[in-house]
Request: fold
Amino acid sequence: MLDVRGLKKVYNGGARQVEAIRDLTFTLSAGELVCLVGPSGCGKTTLLKCVAGLLTPTSGEVLLQGRPVTGPPPGMAVVFQEYGRSLFPWLRVGENVDLPLRQKGLPKARRRELVTEALAAVGLADAESAYPWQLSGGMQQRVAIARAVAFEPEVLLMDEPFAAVDAQTRADLEDLVRALWHKLGVTILFVTHDIDEAVYLGQRVLILSSSPTVVREELTVDLPDTRDQLHTRGHPRFTALRTHVQEQIQAAKRGLPSPSAAGDGEE
Ligand SMILES: Nc1ncnc2c1ncn2[C@@H]1O[C@H](COP(=O)(O)OP(=O)(O)OP(=O)(O)O)[C@@H](O)[C@H]1O
Reply:
């Protein structure tokens, strides 16, 4: 579904050159939920912007269903961290969700259906006529998720979407993402700096190195598919996986080679 091949991004800001991403290669199959974690500043947002077609890579390519991404592709939706800046304050909740559907040129009756379904799916059926600023932070982020879901994307990109909400709301939203993913069968690339969140949500976790960034490790999350906050997080395997990811991120920060790279060296 999504192929990232040899992606490199260098920012050229006058005298200052930043090689944010050195060489990233990974693939997402249709219907997968993959989380991406890495040390702060390792280029997670840069990567997501390249995947979303909002930023042109210096070299390498992104393919969506085999077609190169050169601008925002029609089958992709993004949920950003800052819900306060991604919703239009002068539009009601329902109108915010409807806007991309209008741009897609869908007939009015179908738009109505999609808006109603998406708001019901995120538990906001009764907030359709409210303005975003009348809602709590967690509710606003639900609106942003509803807007992405109503768009019926093939790939959903999420950039630290729960970083600005409280822990309780965050846990609810994590479960909402997994429930929607199960229901819709959408492919999700979820960027987070939260190791527990990555292991709780993902089928796989891609661990990035420090900048200039490469994929340090691809980890399969071999936890049962049915997850819940209490039991999954108390599962000994969950603890083992989160400890492993934490160790890798600490090692990445110290610039130590990844286990596979060390193995390669020994051979
Ligand atoms: N527009 C830009 N111009 C120049 N450098 C940039 C630009 N955007 C990002 N960078 C640099 O690229 C590197 C990666 O930044 P990016 O925001 O992608 O990382 P991140 O992993 O998302 O960070 P965080 O975890 O702190 O949110 C950083 O060194 C940053 O300073």
